[in-house]
Amino acid sequence: MTQPVEGPSSAPPVELSRRRVFVIFGALLAAMFLSSLDQSVVGTALPTIVGDLGAAQNEGWIITAYLLAIAIVMPIYGKLGDLVGRRIPFLVAIALFVVGSTGSALAGSFVDLILWRSVQGLGAGGLVILAQAVIADIVSARERGKYMGPMGAVFGVATVTGPLLGGWFTQGPGWRWCFWTNVPIGLIALGVAWFALKLPSHRPAHRFDLGGALLLATATAGVVFLTSWTSLTGAAGYDWGDPGLLALTAGTLLAVAGFLVVESRVSDPIVPLRLFHSSTFAVAAIIALSIGMAMFAALSFLPTFLQMAQGVGATESGLLMLPMTIGILITSLASGLLITRTGHYKLYPIVGMGVATAALAWLTLISAGMSMVLFGAMIFVLGLGLGAVLQTIVIAAQNSVPATQVGVATSTNNFLREIGAAVGTSAFSTAFTTRLSTTLAEDMRQLPASDVPAAFGARSLTPADVASLPASVREAVVEAYTTSLAPSFWYLVPVAAVGFIAAFFMREIRLSDRAGLSARASS
């Protein structure tokens, strides 16, 4: 098929050859893999990283800072893609990710690492959103399952490859290679996207909603800081007489209120509130929020449990997460193909959220001496649930809006998932680390003073440190990790249950047979 030459006066291509679709799809998969790989690589190395940097009490912030940055920029990328086209924002996102990875690898302190992880997140937010929006541009909603399924599978593959690489780097050349490895992959993805991602650009018909973007960023940061208050300040709890806490709460509420006012009045809002008038979009948003809170919190701390409580190495902990990946692969690919074949998608969020909720309840039974076969069964079931939901709700959200709003629909759905992930990880980390510090302090007081090393403390423990402790202290640490982590999963069960219940209320809209570019050109 002959393609028009792109240029300011050229008509945008509304139909693409199958070959061109596959080339573009390859570039998108490379970018998605890059973003997904980073999260899983760092998760496995996390105990060693925070131990080396003396920040075990703030472990969750390495993940939270990354997720917060992603959440803040997702709506911006989505809106810019709708306004000016998706090619340039996509290339900028990859470049930011590479720069952030380089800075993280060179970080000399915990604060430096958090700052550069945030830069990584500013790029990663664009990789996820724009990849999904581009697929909506070039493939019809009816056919999209065949492409969204593999995107979900890429996440599953990265959850295997990442932990294995993270474990090997941690035990071999060092944890900094968890970030260095992103650089060549990112440069390759940038090159492929530069030459393959030839999509039309256009002049914006409206001004960018800068006020809405700033208020949304402020509100997002405020929510995450509130849920992370104890780990941020080192306080034992929430003292509502603290002027700083009161100011943060008031500022967050004002930002939320201001955002709602601005979005209801501006001509072209960054997050159109009318999107939520669609019950399909609203339910997909609720599911995204709940699965983000539950999924990322669980996935972030399971490798820590395996390394600290089970005494396995970083590489072995990655291998032990393999059953979850297999579960994600099975249901992600199967649901995508079945959606394309049948044209129906409502069933998959219902079943997926139900299975994921049950799996999280099952994970409350983890223990220091449990069988790894049983642990594998638990996370396999969790993977089965996640795989059926992750890409399905994006298809539902995209299909519920006009082609001109695919970017904001995609970014809003993913934004809610990521803000849920940031809040969920922060809250879960706070609950876990607070319980861990208290338990360890009590246990150490019951041991003979001669058994406890002089420099012992929860703040700088690494898996290697635990293995070298005297037997009585090591047993106390392992028991403290298990008894602190397992009950914390109960905080996630009702959150996932909300998504399960909401899925029953999703109204299924007939999947469109036209690709986004074609529909937009004729609108």
From TrEMBL:
It is a multi-pass membrane protein. The chain crosses the membrane at residues 21-41, 61-78, 90-116, 122-139, 151-171, 177-197, 209-232, 244-262, 283-306, 318-340, 347-366, 372-394, 488-506. It is found in: Cell membrane. The keyword Ribosomal protein does not apply. Signal peptide: none annotated. Residues 24-511 form the Major facilitator superfamily (MFS) profile domain. Gene3D superfamilies: MFS general substrate transporter like domains (1.20.1250.20), Multidrug resistance protein D (1.20.1720.10). Its main location: membrane. SUPFAM superfamilies: MFS general substrate transporter. Coiled coil: none annotated. Keywords: Cell membrane, Membrane, Transmembrane, Transmembrane helix, Transport. It comes from the Bacteria. It holds the Pfam family MFS_1. This is DHA2 family efflux MFS transporter permease subunit.
